[in-house]
């Protein structure tokens, strides 16, 4: 593969690192005080309550709503872990699959709000490309430790 400036593997590493920065920004911009006090889950509950698909409402009510504090921490720290893992390239395939799953969950929850969907679709697509291109081959702890060869 011929490219300009960097090798193909290095460009895929740039893509992985950029996605990690995007996840880290998702975590950073949250108002943590409000988020952990239930603000984020309360907002999501309102979205789920109006959702056009009953399975989403039921799933939210059975999984998320009974554990709002736990879910708030899980979402926030999953975003932070994904960001850090992708930036340094540690357990990259796991982070890429996890990020894709989280983006698809966000996509399904917010299916009626197309303004939000661009970000989730783009991040899921980048995750798929970075995973299939094995973007941890360069500039990663996975490569340094000989993981996922």
Description of the molecule:
The structure is a single chain. By secondary structure, this protein is mostly helical. The protein is 74% helix and 0% strand. The chain is built from 8 helices and no strands. It has helices spanning 8-28, 32-36, 39-49, 54-64, 68-88, 92-109, 114-132, 141-145. Helix 1 (8-28) runs antiparallel to helix 5 and helix 5 (68-88) crosses helix 6 (92-109).
% residues in beta strands: under 5%
The shape is: elongated
Average the pLDDT over all residues and give the rounded result.
Answer: 93
How many helices does DSSP assign? 8
Structural class, by secondary structure, is mainly alpha
Helix content: over 70%
Radius of gyration: 17 Å
Q: What is the helix/strand order?
A: HHHHHHHH
Low-confidence stretches: none
Index terms:
8 helices, 74% helix, 0% strand, mainly alpha, 149 residues
Short description:
The chain has 149 residues and is mainly alpha-helical. The chain has helices spanning 8-28, 32-36, 39-49, 54-64, 68-88, 92-109, 114-132, 141-145. It is elongated, with a radius of gyration of 17 Å.
What is this structure's SSE topology?
Elements lengths: L7 H21 L3 H5 L2 H11 L4 H11 L3 H21 L3 H18 L4 H19 L8 H5 L4
């Amino acid at each position: 593969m011929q490219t300009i400036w960097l090798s193909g593997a290095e460009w895929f590493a740039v893509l992985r690192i950029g996605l990690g920065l995007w996840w880290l920004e998702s975590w950073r911009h949250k108002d943590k005080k409000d988020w952990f006090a239930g603000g984020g889950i309360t907002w999501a509950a309102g979205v789920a309550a109006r959702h056009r698909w009953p399975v989403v409402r039921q799933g939210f009510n059975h999984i998320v709503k009974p554990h709002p504090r736990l879910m708030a921490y899980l979402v926030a720290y999953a975003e932070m872990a994904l960001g850090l893992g992708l930036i340094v390239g540690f357990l990259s395939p796991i982070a890429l699959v996890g990020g894709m799953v989280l983006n698809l969950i966000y996509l399904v929850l917010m299916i009626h709000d197309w303004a939000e969907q661009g970000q989730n679709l783009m991040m899921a697509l980048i995750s798929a490309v970075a995973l299939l291109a094995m973007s941890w081959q360069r500039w990663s702890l996975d490569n340094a430790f000989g993981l996922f060869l």
